[in-house]
Amino acid sequence: MSKKGKGHRVGQGKYPPKRGRNSGPARRTKPVRGMGDVEQLEGRNVVLEAMRRKRRPVTRVLIDERAKPSGKVAEIIALAEEMQVSLRHVARHKLDEMSATGVHNGVIAFAKPHPRITVSALLEDLFERGEDPFVVLVDQVSYEQNLGAIMRSAMGAGVHAVVVPVRRGKGLSPVVQRVAMGGAEVVPLIREGLSSALATLKRAGVRIVGADMGGRPLWEVPMDGPLALVLGGEDKGLTDTLQKRCDAVVSVPLSHGLDSLNVSVTAGVMMFEKCRQDQAG
């Protein structure tokens, strides 16, 4: 996080928004890529979560021929049989050659991409279910491990979606999915312009809270109820443009002269502070 920016009080918007008959959002029916495309999933936990959740088709599973058919491997095999997914036992070096992450734990699978979703569609779904939106937006995350860690924390904190820019930063790569450890199967990753996404959220009455070292201590700012958390990238922090769209800017106070935290750590601290405030009522 950068050292710019001053905090100000959270504003209150009307909630939920009015939606016209012809202004409905895009539905979750169009995949990120062509229906013939697949995504590569690596690691026992990632593959197992995709098969357990059944939120998208897993089309093929490859397992190290020397892997013991017990524990998670046994469950993957059982699910593949139950779901009629193609399963092959292959030589370890074949998996090594195919691996994009370098850490496949003897299991690689292929699955259809998650359906595309927009912030507008997400909000409509949440309003119909009577749930308060909880969204995390991250600008210019350059390291796949950071985005994966954010998505794993987001799953644990009950976040409804993580939003990243269309052209900047990382998407849902094999590395992101491996580090997320199943988070990508639960929390949608939305690729959308952050300014547009924030405008949609604000119109819906969702409070926007940004993270910056010049902000107020995060426990001093109300974060319960409908909320969007905004974080900058690893190097530049929260830009002036994004700060101007925030209702409040908060910081994580640090000791021993430390001037900043890793963006994924900051995101985790903020998410669970929001959870604490919700539970405190």
Q: What are the salient characteristics of this protein?
A:
281 residues, alpha/beta, 60s Ribosomal Protein L30, Chain: A, Alpha/beta knot, 2 domains, six-stranded parallel sheet, four-stranded mixed sheet, elongated
Write up what this structure looks like:
By secondary structure, this protein is an alpha/beta fold. The chain folds into two domains: 39-111, Ribosomal protein L30/S12 (60s Ribosomal Protein L30, Chain: A), CATH 3.30.1330.30; 119-280, SPOUT methyltransferase, trefoil knot domain (Alpha/beta knot), CATH 3.40.1280. It is 35% helix and 19% strand. The chain has a six-stranded parallel beta sheet. A four-stranded mixed beta sheet has the order 1-4-2-3. Strand 5 (134-138), helix 5 (144-157) and strand 6 (161-164) form a beta-alpha-beta unit. The longest helix is centred in the last third of the chain and has 18 residues, at 263-280. It is elongated. Mean pLDDT is 87; it is low at 1-36.
